Amino acid sequence: MRRIAMVTQKGGAGKSTLAICLGVAAREAGESVALVDLDPMGSLTGWGNRRNGGDIMVMAASPGELSEIMGQLEALGVTLAIIDTPAGDSALAEEAIAEAQLCLVPARPNIFDVAASQGTLQKLKHRDYSFVLNQCPPQRQAPRIQQGINALADMGVLLTPLVAARADYQEAARRGLGVTEFAASGAAAAEMRELWRSTRDRLDGVAEHRKSDAA
Ligand SMILES: Nc1ncnc2c1ncn2[C@@H]1O[C@H](COP(=O)(O)OP(=O)(O)OP(=O)(O)O)[C@@H](O)[C@H]1O
Ligand SMILES: [Mg+2]
């Protein structure tokens, strides 16, 4: 079972939105997906309640429960678990980081979000992680922002594509859908399918890396 945690102490960066939309894109690509809601605000749990059908399991987890829940999901044949965490410097985020094979750090392309990620990155020092830049202007990025994007890409800590600010993300979440379901031929759907492909490649790279470490 592949395990992803969405983490950043910055609120509103897109942890829950991306957890949902990536999860749906992965399910459409053939994965058996569970979303694990570690956030007491319950964004994913609410989304699950609005969703028709049980094709994606949504489980709320309390502090200290995550490890056991992950074991249960694996026993049920889940192939991808995505863990959502609350904003802030929380023990819950650390619990998720400890369970995850890959941590995704959503950030809006501005100095506040990237600066606010520093505390999160401290916790990710010995873990595999990658930024996902979210709520980007749909067209070209400003030159200074583009420089920052290039720097993250050069360090190997940026997943592609950039995720644009699009109303589809908000509408889909409101209806208990992923963007690939809400507007299957839209630009948001295309970028989420691509983001799942690059996430999966990254996870596979992690697996190979671990294998060679062990050899
Ligand atoms: N790519 C996007 N385009 C448009 N709106 C977006 C996008 N991503 C997220 N949003 C909106 O931004 C707001 C914050 O997103 P979200 O709740 O996913 O962030 P979060 O990191 O989970 O926040 P929190 O830290 O409070 O849990 C929501 O209203 C969401 O609909
Ligand atoms: Mg959230």
Automatic annotation (TrEMBL):
It holds the Pfam family CbiA. Coiled coil: none annotated. Gene3D superfamilies: P-loop containing nucleotide triphosphate hydrolases. Residues 4-177 form the CobQ/CobB/MinD/ParA nucleotide binding domain. InterPro entries: CobQ/CobB/MinD/ParA_Nub-bd_dom (IPR002586), DNA_Partitioning_ATPase (IPR050678), P-loop_NTPase (IPR027417). This is AAA family ATPase. The lineage of its organism: Bacteria, Pseudomonadati, Pseudomonadota, Alphaproteobacteria, Hyphomicrobiales.
